[in-house]
């Protein structure tokens, strides 16, 4: 690890114009160049993550957040996001004292950048663009994948060429910088494997092991169901959704976060998916309520660099 900026990687800089690349990664690469006038040196994707309803058991979902980064040497961070097109900002990277005033969305990325700089990553500053594939309305936590994508991208562009960022160290830095976050979800983002769940020990340094969790391999489906409408009505509507799904053939259901929110994960036989969706939709339409959103979830691998 070194504080010196590494040369721009041609592969990442060309990502915006590569027809075969994933549209999200092409978009985030192009958006950084459009916002800051230079191509990215690295683009990283980080999966959304979820709890499995048992203590310490988490997994990653195949819906990513992406971060594109390029190193600076003038101590400035320039932050942008297509989710907040009018709220890009240029901020001095200070290591102590109150943080500079920033748009609400940029406060958390700036906290990550500051923690990284204190540890020696990115002291010279960075250009950064962040974009997710899901919004908070889907019901999965959006902060933790964004935190990890930012940390990995910045550590990468300020590290030695060809050196993989130290994920364990980044996990500890994020846990210290953002104690309000869900450390279990962050560790799923950083260390998940496709078709497996991660069983975590306590604390950022706790041991972890992998257990098989591959619904598709057993002809099952994992579906995220997010209710809409007033916040006060969500608990009752979620409970009703779970009851309807179980009567239509679902095997189990649980909240994807540490606390109940606006969605539930439902595990069901693949052959019962249409019946479950129909039962839920018919009930909500019959009551004049917005029909919940259904999102198929694949059990995905960890954050990675997109070349």
Task: Describe the 3D structure.
By secondary structure, the protein is of the alpha+beta class. It has eight helices and 13 strands. Strands 1, 2, 3, 4, 5, 6, 7, 12 and 13 form a nine-stranded mixed β-sheet that branches. Strands 9-10-8-11 form a four-stranded antiparallel β-sheet, covered by helices on one side. A hairpin with a 7-residue loop joins strand 6 and strand 7. The protein starts with 9 loop residues before the first helix and ends with a strand.
User: Main sheet?
Assistant: 9 strands, mixed
Looking at the structure, what is the overall shape? globular
Tally of extended strands?
13
- Please state roughly what percent of the residues sit in beta strands, choosing from under 5%, 5-15%, 15-25%, 25-35%, 35-45% or over 45%: 25-35%
N-C termini distance: 21 Å
Rg is 20 Å
Mean pLDDT: 91
| Total of DSSP H or I helical runs spanning 4+ residues | 8
Helix content: 25-40%
Poorly predicted runs are: 1-10
Based on helices, strands and strand pairing, what is the structural class? alpha+beta
**Oligomeric state:** single chain
| Series of secondary-structure elements, N-terminal to C-terminal | HHEEEEHEHHHEEEHEEHEEE
């Amino acid at each position: 690890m070194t504080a010196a900026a590494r040369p721009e990687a041609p592969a990442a800089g060309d990502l915006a114009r590569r027809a075969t690349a994933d549209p999200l990664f092409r978009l985030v690469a192009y958006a950084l160049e459009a916002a800051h006038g230079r191509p990215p040196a690295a683009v990283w994707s980080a999966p959304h993550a979820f709890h499995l309803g048992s203590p310490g058991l988490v997994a990653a979902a195949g819906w990513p957040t992406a971060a594109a980064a390029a190193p600076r040497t003038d101590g400035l961070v320039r932050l942008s996001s297509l989710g907040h097109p009018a709220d890009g900002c240029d901020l001095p990277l200070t290591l102590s004292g109150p943080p500079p005033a920033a748009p609400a969305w940029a406060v958390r990325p700036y906290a990550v950048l500051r923690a990284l700089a204190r540890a020696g990553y990115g002291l010279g500053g960075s250009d950064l663009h962040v974009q997710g594939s899901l919004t908070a309305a889907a019901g999965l936590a959006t902060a933790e994948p964004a935190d990890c994508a930012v940390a990995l991208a910045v550590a990468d562009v300020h590290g030695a060429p060809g050196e993989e960022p130290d994920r364990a160290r980044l996990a500890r830095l994020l846990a210290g910088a953002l104690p309000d976050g869900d450390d279990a979800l962050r560790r799923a983002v950083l260390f998940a494997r496709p078709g497996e769940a991660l069983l975590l020990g306590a604390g950022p340094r706790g041991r972890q092991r992998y257990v098989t969790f591959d619904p598709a391999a057993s002809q099952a489906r994992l579906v995220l169901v997010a209710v809409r409408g007033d916040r006060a009505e969500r608990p009752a509507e979620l409970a009703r959704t779970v009851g309807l799904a179980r009567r239509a053939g679902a095997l189990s259901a649980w909240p994807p976060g540490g606390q109940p929110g606006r969605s539930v994960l439902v595990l069901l036989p693949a052959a019962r998916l249409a019946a479950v969706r129909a039962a839920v939709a018919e009930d909500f339409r019959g009551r004049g309520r917005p029909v919940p959103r259904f999102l198929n979830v694949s059990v995905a691998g960890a954050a990675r660099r997109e070349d």
